[in-house]
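User: Structure please.
Assistant: Input sequence and predicted structure:
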Amino acid sequence: MKNHKKLAGLQKRKAIAGYLFIAPFIAGFLVFMVKPMFQSLYMSFCDVQLGPGGFNYVFAKLFNYDRALTVDTEFNRLLTEELSRMFINSLAIMVFSFFVALILNQKFKGRALVRAIFFLPVILSSGVILGVEFNNSLLSGMQEVIENSTNGSSITDAIQEILITAGIGTRAFETVFEIVDGVYDVAIASGIQIIIFLSGLQTISDSMYEAADIEGCTSWEKLWKITFPMISSLFLVNWIYTIVDFCMRSDNEVMEKISEAMIVNLNYGFASAMAWIYFATVLVIIGISSGIISKGVYYYD
């Protein structure tokens, strides 16, 4: 009875600490985000016109949504392409970050230096440095020189050409080669996921692996019977974070189209409708995938 009360008290303190950590976000969301969200939702059902005194709202029912889904020739195509790219890149990021975390959790000389190197994507993915990277004329010039000197070919291009010539080239191979060519993008987007996986790996007690060694378990068996179940809940966290992070990327063509409609064309109603369609679609994908992943999550006390 006493142990049960102690456990309940510990869980209550952990819950309070968790709420305190997310309290600043909740307060900021309520103060700065709730009103703009409802305003944007209302705009999506209106024909918004700029007047001398501000915005003039003319209720247009589902006109903007109908235009986005049935009239506009680009939005559905861009939405499908970006969601497909999101799914493939998210899987690649999850696999890459998990195995890098496994490597960084091992004991070897120079581990601190290697961790620092792999944590560089967290720094490089910050807005300022990422902007400098994309606007760096020196890097662009170097890239052009490399492409011209290699005649635009690469190892993956050569292998892909061989496979296609041999009649093996399929869409699956093309997808794999796209991921290989974009390994830099995968690495730079994996920093936070690596940290989360590594923090979970460090919470696993060494006694569990020692007991497995005594029982004669192989490294492969320990991976699937101990490591994977013990950090399975972090896969759900990283999956949701990866999807949200991808949807907010600067090279997202759907976001570019929404920004163009809002900033260039000043069509706030149409831009709001596209944004809410995109938001709802991503929310449904997160809900379905989270429900599937959560069935395989192992929770322990």
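The radius of gyration is 24 Å.
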